[in-house]
Amino acid sequence: MACRVQYSSIHSSLRFFSSSSSSSTLFHHSSLKSHKKLRFTNSKYFTLSKQSLYCTCSSTTNSNGEDDPFVLTTPLYYVNAPPHMGSAYTTIAADAIARFQRLLGKQVIFITGTDEHGEKIASAAVANGSSPSEHCDSISQAYKALWSELDISHDKFIRTTNPNHEAIVKEFYSRVLASGDIYRADYEGLYCVNCEEYKDEKELLENNCCPMHLKPCVRRKEDNYFFALSKYQKKLEEILTDNPDFVQPSFRLNEVQGWVKSGLRDFSISRASVDWGIPVPSDAKQTIYVWFDALLGYISALLDDEKQHNLETAISSGWPASLHLIGKDILRFHAVYWPAMLMSAGVSLPKKVFGHGFLTKDGLKMGKSLGNTLEPADLVNKVGADAVRYFFLKEVEFGNDGDYSEDRFINTINAHLANTIGNLLNRTLGLLRKNCQSTVAVDSASAAEGNAFKDTVEKQIEKARQHYENLELSSACEAVLEIGNAGNVYINEKAPWSLFKQGDSGFETAAKSETRWGGLKHGQMVAEPKPIFARIELENELNNATEEVKKANKKKEKQKTPKAVEA
Ligand SMILES: Nc1ncnc2c1ncn2[C@@H]1O[C@H](COP(=O)(O)OP(=O)(O)OP(=O)(O)O)[C@@H](O)[C@H]1O
Questions:
Q1: Angle at the Cα of 414 from the Cα atoms of 408 and 416, rounded to 5 degrees
Q2: CA-CA to 511 of 20 to 30 Å: which in 79, 349, 371, 410?
Q3: Of all atoms in ligand 1, which is nearest to the CA of residue 358?
Q4: Best of 74, 77, 116 to mutate for ligand 1, by most ligand atoms within 8 A of CB?
């Protein structure tokens, strides 16, 4: 395998942005000043307007203005098995969005973590011969290790077995109870253990198989606590109509509207048969249903150790979330159950839920339950984290499904990263090193005035910015790639190597890792070229990644300072 020499990572290449607008705020929050004013009568909670949802029941004092942090979340991954490329996919996308928001100057709180309670976890622990808590520690650690290998820049890692989280769940449950939305009843139905959910018979395949997990559902009867979801049908319909950006992409909004219109049924929020969970307050014989537990992780993650561990403090530390990024499999929980639960507890709704598609293998969703997964750590070891991250962002249209193909993986890395972006960086830095002692010869702000190349770059920067804002991640990568293409064409046209031979040191530099045109100043030193993107030779395929890439990965790993805190 040949290896080209570049000095920067794809992140640097993506930093061609000028600081500007922040995302719009859809749901505003007006607060009451005192707990005494809390009224747990649902009809009195909300005033819906065309633009915003005013929650009038909480004493939360989050102003939700321009200065509010950009809070984004990945799902809290279920620790029934170690992470795979599907889990990594959502996290990689969230990471790109977090980095973009930071470039805009926003304070970002990027939350990820693990969902650790429930029947599936307890069974997985038994199967591994370990206790549930040992099992959770080990799988949760595997997620953290993978995020580190993928260079994920999360700020918080929440585990739902964290005692602070448990306190938040119990407080939330008590609020919903006080609002009159929890009742006890018998329930009999078909249950998918993998979804941890009762299923509607009409959703199921032959032999009552779950369409996601392709395993038969089992008939169960239980005496459970129920959440009165049906009470929120009308409000949810109004929210979805008045705030069409709440669920994205738009075709997912249609899906959600369809579910709501077809009639919402109350759902059970406790399990009598599951010990591994948070006990229901005032009924230790039942544990809280995993979803009524895990979703609260998005709020409890906001707590920091110095503050009091209650719902109010957590909410005032950044809630509502700006964006929940999830796979389409858990859209119903995030776009129907969660908003209703929040309304019941008098807490503001998240601003946006984006349900992306699946990475598939042979047309089937890659997943832990089916076991048809792709090992992200293997890919990282072979081509480096940046290349893996770039491939999945660029080659899967965000929102739709995408099938993984090794040929496409190799071709994309070679064409986009090694041949285009990497080559441009290598040529530019190499020329500067050879001819200018790695020092910028002119001010880049004036160097390309009136130049078509500069216009192209600025146009692509703006395009990339807009695509990022709209969560069109593949198109954002495309815009960056266009800058690389234009840069190579420009260098070919200008042939600076011959200008240098003629003694002209004033050629216009194009490649830079600054956030805007003109960021490089006369006399500024640029970095030493060093290998980052390996060109994969087809005959050697993925097995023969260069030693340079492996070394570069190791070096990067060493340099990394732990940033995330466990909430
Ligand atoms: N194949 C996939 N493509 C895209 N995202 C995925 C994929 N698999 C998992 N995810 C991400 O993980 C979330 C589901 O997390 P979970 O821990 O339940 O993983 P899972 O592998 O889907 O588990 P299972 O197969 O047991 O249902 C999805 O909503 C999505 O964010």
A1: 90
A2: 410
A3: 3
A4: 77
Residue nearest to atom 30 of ligand 1 (CA): 327
pLDDT at res. 212: 82
Q: What is the pLDDT of residue 58?
A: 39
Q: Hey, what amino acid is at 210? A: C
Sheet holding 197-199, edge to edge: 197-199, 182-192, 218-227, 267-268
Q: Would you state the pLDDT for residue 65?
A: 60
Longest dimension (CA), the chain: 88
Calpha distance 384→550 (Å, rounded): 7
Nearest Cα residue to atom 26 of ligand 1:
369
Interacting residues of 128 by C-beta distance below 8 A, sequence separation 6+ = 135
Q: Is 113's C-beta closer than 6 angstroms to any atom of ligand 1?
A: no
Low-confidence ranges of the chain (pLDDT < 70): 1-66, 306, 447-449, 503-518, 529-532, 534, 537-567
Alpha-carbon distance 70 to 77, whole Å?
21
Q: Compute the distance between CA of residue 508 and CA of residue 491 in angstroms, rounded to an integer.
A: 9
Q: Strand 353-356 and strand 247-248: pairing?
A: parallel
Token pair listed for 455 = 């216009």
Q: Is 73 in the pocket of ligand 1 (CB under 6 A)?
A: no
CA dist., res. 44 & res. 12, Å (int): 50
Half-sphere exposure of 261 (CA within 13 A, CB side): 8
- 174, two tokens: 């008590």
Q: Please tell me the distance from the alpha carbon of residue 373 to that of residue 368, in angstroms, as a whole number.
A: 7
**Ligand 1 mean position, distance from CA 180 (Å):** 33
Between the CA of 87 and the centroid of ligand 1 the distance, in Å, is 5
133 CA to middle of ligand 1, Å?
22
The verdict on the CB of residue 77 being under 6 Å from ligand 1 is yes
- The tens digit of pLDDT for each residue in 359-390 reads 998 788 888 778 888 999 999 998 999 999 99
The minimum-distance atom of ligand 1 relative to the CA of 80 is 26
**109: enclosing H helix or E strand:** strand 108-115
pTM: 0.82
With a 6 Å cutoff on the Cβ, whether 447 touches ligand 1 is no
Distance (Å, whole) CA 258 – CA 239: 14
Read off the pLDDT of residues 160-211 as tens digits, 9 standing for 90 and up: 999 999 999 999 999 999 999 999 999 888 988 888 888 888 889 999 999 8
* pLDDT at 448 (0 to 100): 65
Tokens of 77: 């991954």
Pairing, β 197-199 against β 182-192: antiparallel
